Amino acid sequence: MDYTIAGQFLEGMISSFTIKSHEFANGYNDGFPIRHPDLSVNNIFVDDDYNITCIIDWTFASSVPMAELLTTPGMPHPRDDTEPSLTAVFRAGFTNCLEGESKIFQPAIWETMRKVWLFTRLTNLDALQDYKHFKELYALIFGEQTMDIPTLFTEERKKAANSNMAKFLEAGDLPPSVIQKKEKAYFSCVGPERHAFSKKLTFASVLSRGFVADRNLWQWIENAEWPKCFPQV
Fold it and tell me: In sequence order, what are the beta bridge partners of 54?
């Protein structure tokens, strides 16, 4: 249900991605450029001096708006976010080239690029930090840096349409007995430690609707609990 509600918010955000023609350098907002959908380190070949010699895997390349083309590619995988320093280098590659031609991008365009990057990560369902991406995108569009996203979603669930949708989705769930059987079969293969750890996370989420498995939680798991729970990994 959370993804349904997120989708409703995302649909309402689309109009904010529009870039006015004057924000682009003249001659750089015509048509739709070709975008590589998987610009990762595995698809970029370089020589001994780190000059790019070849880019492969253009299978799903498509034409896109300029706003999507200029989003900073994730490295090493497209789903990954980039460090601010690398984002600055990527943008400088465009701005330096344009300055040589006496053309400039308006500064506001880069904020729009960031919005598009976050939006595409969420709509592609291929991100590892959905909550983080949604919260940042919401803040960029609505200017509410301290918005309590769990509370926001809780209020949306109370609306009649969403309440009815939740009942419809629940009707398609497997019976609890079947779910327990499948969980038992899965965890019997990976060990009781993982089962216990998963139950703790589920219990925490039930106690608090505001529970978020964010970056800090996974770092804590990796640093404190992972060696004990998964010694074979």
Answer: 45
Distance, in Å, from the CA atom of 86 to the CA atom of 76, rounded to the nearest integer, reads 12
Q: Give the C-alpha separation, 233 to 218, whole Å.
A: 16
The answer to whether residues 162 and 1 touch, using CB atoms and an 8 Å cutoff, is: yes
CA distance 136 to 129: 11
Task: Give the chain's length.
Answer: 233
Q: Model pTM greater than 0.85?
A: no
Q: Put residue 26 in one of left, alpha, beta given phi > 0 → left and psi -120 to 50 → alpha.
A: beta
pLDDT tens-digit profile of 105-159? 677 778 888 888 899 889 988 777 888 889 999 999 988 766 788 888 888 989 9
Q: State the Cα–Cα distance between residues 4 and 175, nearest whole angstrom.
A: 22
